[in-house]
Amino acid sequence: MTIHFHKNDLPDGVDFGRSVAVDTETQGLSLVRDKLCLVQLSAGDGDAHIVQMDRAAYDCPNLKALMNNPDVEKIFHYARFDLAMMKRDLGVETSPVYCTKIASALVRTYTDGHGLKNLCKELLNIDLSKQQQSSDWASESLSQAQLSYAASDVLYLHQLQRILTARLTRENRMDMAKACFEFLPTRADLDLAGWSEVDIFSHSFR
Predict the structure, then answer these.
(1) pLDDT tens, residue by residue, 73-107
(2) Strand, helix or coil at 106?
(3) Domain containing 107 — which CATH number?
(4) Domain ranges, residue 21
(5) Which of 15, 16, 54, 166 could form a disulfide with 43 if both were Cys (CB 3.0 to 4.6 A apart)?
(6) Per the structure, how many domains does the chain have?
(7) Could you tell me if residue 205 is inside a domain?
(8) Which of 134, 121, 68 is CA-nearest to residue 97?
(9) Which residues touch 171 (CB under 8 Å, ≥6 apart)?
């Protein structure tokens, strides 16, 4: 594994092909209070690119162009949060999207464990360390342990996508999954607009 660390933006000429795995690290989980700190990306080739954001400006035209590119599929795990964060701080409409957490929930109905660590253990026999999950991602200087953790969140998403897509196809749920993926930007918009904890589709919401 090679980790390519970039300040403020992706360099010119980085090509992820037709599909890029994406994740973010933030100061916390609040869409009101906490800011986007890192964006991690991988082409599924065993390497990771980590972009440390300039939180004063978010001037990253290459990264924004990639997220806006309709010809490049973006693979996330729990895309709902990442899409909201990137729309709020980067001003991008990220699409098209594939979410391995949604895919897992639709096809791995024999378990409630749909976290990335659960998926990597069961489907790839890989133990992900979550030791650095709660750390200071706003720090100007990141440790090697932090960078390795951040990279691990994107390195395996292409493999998981292939396995989950095969299972969705087997169970005739691929169309349902695609409809969910297409709804994710709207779900992120609802979160940003204040409906993060309210299910407007619920019978009780009337």
Answers:
(1) 999 999 999 999 999 999 999 999 999 999 999 99
(2) helix
(3) 3.30.420.10
(4) 3-192
(5) 16
(6) 1
(7) no
(8) 68
(9) 107
